[in-house]
Write a structure and sequence with these properties.
It is built from six helices and seven strands; from the N terminus they run αβαβαβαβββαβα. Helix 2 packs across helix 3 and helix 2 packs parallel to helix 6. Helix 2 links the parallel strand 1 and strand 2. The protein has one domain: 3-Layer(aba) Sandwich (Alpha/beta knot), CATH 3.40.1280. The chain has a seven-stranded parallel sheet, with helices on both faces. The protein is of the alpha/beta class and about 170 residues long. The mean pLDDT is about 90.
Length: about 170
């Protein structure tokens, strides 16, 4: 059995600058605490975080970065234009959204190429103009009374699945 120090060393053999393989994109954030939670999840699975340039976002990220080391954050301008550019650059754009053709989270394969996991607004989801840019939608089944999870929880579940860790 390996020690904690050996496990920690095996997790990351090089400094993190930009993983680039997996990007969590909560492009219409409502709560700063969700961004901090997603930032922590991104570090855990080796993903980057893409967020819009809103005045309160940098402070929310700084407050949420309990790891106290530099993390990979990409600031976007217009979210729809940014998504279109990611698709144009060959990245797969996956949206966490309720849709007729959505794949269930359990059936979602690990990301085999560079993938953006788009997370919508807490109340309104992914805007219609951005839904048209999705290559695929994934839904998280729920058996309780609620219809959605908060962005940080939904994003964390999808990121772990895409990273092949679930």
């Amino acid at each position: 059995m390996r020690t904690r120090a050996e496990l920690r060393t095996a997790r990351r053999r090089r400094a993190h600058s930009c993983w680039g393989h997996l990007i969590a994109a909560p492009l219409w954030p409502m709560h700063g605490s969700n961004l901090g939670t997603l930032l922590r999840t991104c570090d855990a699975v080796g993903a980057c975080l893409a967020v819009p340039r809103l005045p309160w976002v940098p402070e929310a990220l700084a407050r949420g970065n309990t790891l106290r080391h530099r993390t990979c954050v990409h600031f976007t301008g217009d979210p729809v234009r940014w998504l279109a550019r990611q698709r144009q650059d060959g990245l797969r754009v996956l949206g966490v959204e309720l849709a007729d053709e959505a794949v269930r989270l359990a059936d979602l394969p690990a990301a085999r190429g560079a993938t953006v996991a788009v997370l919508g607004h807490e109340r309104h989801g992914i805007p219609a103009e951005a839904v048209g840019l999705l290559d695929q939608a994934v839904e998280i089944p729920m058996v309780g009374h609620g219809t959605t999870l908060n962005v940080a929880v939904a994003g964390s579940l999808v990121l772990y699945k895409l990273a092949g860790l679930l």
